[in-house]
Amino acid sequence: MKHVPFFTHSGWSELYPIGKNHQKGKLLIGAFELSELWAWAAYEYITEKEQREQEKVHFALQNGSLNDRWVPTKASTGLIAALEPGQNLKWNGLTLFRWTTETEAPREAKSEEICYLQSPMDLFRKSKEWILNQSSTIIHAWGLNNPNQVALENHALIIGDQQSIWVHPTSKLIACTLNSTDGPIFIGPDVEIQEGSHLRGPLVIGEKTVVKMSTRIYGSSAIGPQCRVGGEISNCTFLGYSNKGHDGFLGQSVIGHWCNLGADTNSSNLKSNYGPVRIWSETEQEFVDSTLQFCGLLMGDHSKCGINTMFTTGTVVGTGCNIYGAGFQPKHIPDFAWGGGNEWQLHDFNRFLETAQRVMERRGKSLEATETASLKEQHSSAHLRFDARDA
Length: 391
Fold this sequence. Notes:
Layout: E1 6-7, E2 28-29, E3 32-33, H1 34-48, H2 51-62, E4 64-67, E5 70-71, H3 76-81, E6 87-91, E7 94-99, E8 104-108, E9 115-116, H4 122-125, H5 127-133, H6 135-142, E10 157-159, E11 165-167, E12 172-173, E13 177-179, E14 185-187, E15 192-193, E16 198-200, E17 203-205, E18 210-211, E19 216-218, E20 221-223, E21 228-229, E22 232-234, E23 237-238, E24 243-244, E25 249-251, E26 254-255, E27 260-261, E28 266-267, E29 278-281, E30 286-289, E31 297-299, E32 304-305, E33 310-311, E34 315-317, E35 322-323, E36 332-333, E37 337-340, E38 343-346, H7 349-361, H8 369-390
Parallel strand pairs: 1-4, 6-8, 10-13, 11-14, 12-15, 13-16, 14-17, 15-18, 16-19, 17-20, 18-21, 19-22, 20-23, 21-24, 22-25, 23-26, 26-31, 27-32, 28-33, 31-34, 32-35, 34-36, 35-37
Antiparallel strand pairs: 2-3, 4-7, 5-9, 6-7, 29-30, 37-38
Helix pairs in contact: 1-2
């Protein structure tokens, strides 16, 4: 199943600061983008079922589309197979799957059958569950070898169950420790783990990522492709192509695409009174109770911060921000904000694009027209907010 079509529900702002360029199946869920997960889920379901079931799934996915916040589980493809042609699938008032032409009364899914993204914090809260559920798919899709089949250097130390550590043959592990006591570790193609690094599962590290010297990564963490990570990282998700290459702590956090955290950037993930963390809600336009005791930094795509930046518990940083200055930063920094402390201005869009192009070229990438249009739309909305603030 090579192509799975998606639609975006109007409530995407609930996932802020994750921007529009992660819609339509492009959001990283554990080790894979959502579109890849659905393609694998459909493939695995079809290979296990009779011809009639295979045909029903093929027909549905060729004549309908999926909600791009619905994460597949073992039950998901079966729910689609059970639909009559023209019968949409609903859950708690939301459409999960819809046909191009609706003709039948919708079918309601049970809550225990559904994994639906409710907030950006799900990306670290559900990380362990997703890594464990994706284990066989990761091994197959990435062509990983268990240490029994790959010759690790004797300076790479394995702690725990050796059968729970999977390494791509093109990766380089240098004088590091891999601890699978609490869960598996998956290391993708062309990954480099440098000297003195300590990795604990559950953990997945994507293609061409570099783990810098003396890095400590705790589970459950998912590091996307082509990242540079260092310092101390605990229960975090990097969506890909971002840098935290130096010392500093990051816990219970989500970092978008093309971000850069300056040396010794630190984020608090626990309040001093151990109470629930309040975070900015883009939907409500106010701070709300996350119900979480641990929550660090949520950062949108193309945002950057200078050296020694300090983020307080539950800080939300939008897309395209440039942050600098001493002391703790505000708990919410809106899209395309430039500055620090109490001094902010709107980031010029053309200068932002110039920087983005330079950054992406370093990873062999460039901005597509659709990505630029989405970013321009976000910048226009940010411009209106800055104008309203100054009025």
